[in-house]
Amino acid sequence: MQREEKQLDMLLEAVLNRLNDLKHSIGVMIHRLETEYETINWPTFLDNFALISSHLTGLMKILSTEIGTPLRNLTVLPLMLTPERDEALLQLTEGRVPIFSHDLAPDYLRTKPDPGAESRQAAHEAKANNLTVEASMKQVAQYNKVISHVWDIISKAKEDWENESSTRPGIQQTSSMADTQALVAAVGLGNGLTAPVGPPTGAGVMIPPAIRQGSPMSAVSPSGNAPMGKMPSGIKTNIKSANQVHPYR
Length: 249
Description:
This protein has helices at residues 2-35, 42-64, 87-92, 105-108, 115-129, 133-167, 177-188, 209-214. The chain is 54% helix and 0% strand. It is mainly alpha-helical. The N and C termini lie far apart (134 Å). Among the domains are: 1-73, Methane Monooxygenase Hydroxylase, Chain G, domain 1 (Up-down Bundle); 79-110, no CATH class; 114-152. The model is unreliable at 202-227 (pLDDT under 50). Component of the Mediator complex. Pfam families: Med8. Residues 215-249 are annotated as: Disordered. It is found in: Nucleus.
């Protein structure tokens, strides 16, 4: 009995070590994908993936060559169930399982599918087993016919594309380098542009701002007449002397 318990402890320790290595490798890979997604290269990603694959292979090898009593013959039973938060359990599971209650224990210790999923799987298996050979062969033939039709369409499209690519002389030119250079020279340097002869008809003469600002407002009017004098005001004013005594003083 002691020998079997010792072998079981050794097996569990080896499995836990391999699981910790696997968890660490997965965490490192996820961290790199989240932080180094712009600089990570394909060989580095393949190296991380190969490391995870090696840990999985080692874990499967340990489980396949079990030492002592096979794990599938053992039963895991909870020692204590409580609806309260267990800090020791939270620390032991690295924050994943805070409570080990009556409602959660079956889900954590379940080794078979959910009863509803198991019943649906059994119904599908029974339906597949009740299918006759003729019906199954007919369905397989229809499936192969659909696959062949899709394959023919893809193959024909591939052949048409290859023929079109082989017969195409090349990329058709849609621009002229000479015309582009002439346009750039005309816009940037004015090459090829001629100025009009004589002043344009109907255009006014522009006066520089300095001349406009320095000219007085009493300049000659556009009609050539002299500026108009001061117009007489129709309002009569009565200016009194300042030394006149106010009547209300």
